[in-house]
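2024-03-11 09:14:02 DEBUG pipeline.ingest accepted 1 chain
2024-03-11 09:14:02 DEBUG pipeline.ingest length=157
2024-03-11 09:14:03 DEBUG pipeline.predict start
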Amino acid sequence: MLKSRRPSRRMALAIVGALLMSLAAGVPALAGASPVVTFSFQPPSPDGNNDWWRNPPLLSVTSDQDGTVHYDWGSGDTTVAADAGSPVSLGYSPEGVSTLRAFCVSSLGETGTVPQVTISVDSELPPFPDVPTLSLTGGRVHLAWDPVTDAGSGLAG
């Protein structure tokens, strides 16, 4: 009959040390920990009035765990991107008001929460006014129109 042996203290310390070193080296999180995604923008903050971007920001998503990032621009059609452990570039935000949602499915199968961010982009100048006001004074024609502004982003024509 075989006798079971407990590991020696030295062996137990070696196992604990190896586990700690593997965690420090970036081994994926233990099962049960949901991945968390964060958004980043370049430039980091809106460059227009009232939290509007005059120039579309370059967006990226990063997860704190290895896995697959899923995202959508509010349409419900999810796009899948790989390499969740490093920043995933999503390109430039579309024109108008968009809601970006993203989540990560870790390499262990855990699904994170779905944060969202609303991005407002207005990079197009307002249209030129269609009909100016005409007046005739002393044989001169005067054209006048109200200045065109974009109250949201602050763009002016």
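2024-03-11 09:14:41 DEBUG pipeline.report The first helix runs from residue 9 to 24.
2024-03-11 09:14:41 DEBUG pipeline.predict end
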